[in-house]
Amino acid sequence: MTEQDLNTLTQAFVSAVERANSVGFDFIEIHAAHGYLLHSFLSPLSNLRQDQYGGQSFENRTRFPLRVIEACRNAWDKPLWVRISASDWAEGPEQDEGAIWKQWGIEQSKLFTGEMQKLGVDLVDVSSGGNWLKQKIPLKHGYQVRPKKNLDDINY
Q1: Among 81, 112, 116, 147, which is most buried by a count of CB atoms within 10 Å?
Q2: Nearest residue to 121 (alpha-carbon basis) of 147, 83, 64, 88
Q3: What CA–CA distance (Å, rounded) separates 117 from 120?
């Protein structure tokens, strides 16, 4: 995606927010989870870009999702939610011993949630998975609780 593509897409999000407002929606939720576009920017598993929107830098990988969120917040004065995957459920650590981010996980989710809070996001809807073909999610009662509980100490 080029810079122009990203600008066009940001405007498309804003246009959707404006349509939601015009028909009377009470809140909106931006989907940044499960391997969809915004999550694909966040995760080092899927974001292989070599520009200001990719690489190892957390700031680079969050730049475009935060741009979209900020643009939507500026266009919307009602509750704004963002759904994230708090973990890619990939094997191995989130960050290796050399401080290289290997996958999206709890530590980056905490940082990202803090950045969203600064932009005025009202609620973060925490889910997980959806970005790695080999994920092994223990599908049982409460399997989503671990990622969510790790984010509970963030004050909103």
Answers
A1: 116
A2: 83
A3: 5
Residue with the two structure tokens 């200001």: 52
End-to-end Cα, the chain, rounded Å: 33
Per-residue model confidence as pLDDT tens digits over 41-94: 999 999 999 999 999 999 999 999 999 999 999 999 999 999 999 988 888 899
**What band does 121 get if pLDDT is binned at 50, 70 and 90?**
very high
- What's the CA gap between 9 and 30, in Å, rounded? 13
111 contacts: CB under 8 Å, gap ≥ 6: 58, 62
Q: How many residues does the chain have?
A: 156
Among 101, 2, 4, 115, smallest CA distance to 49 is for 2
Q: Helix H segments across the chain?
A: 3-22, 37-42, 58-75, 106-118, 145-149
CA–CA dist 156, 114 (Å, integer):
9
- Token readout for 152 is 């509970």
Backbone dihedral angles phi then psi of residue 131, each to the nearest 5 degrees: -120, 0
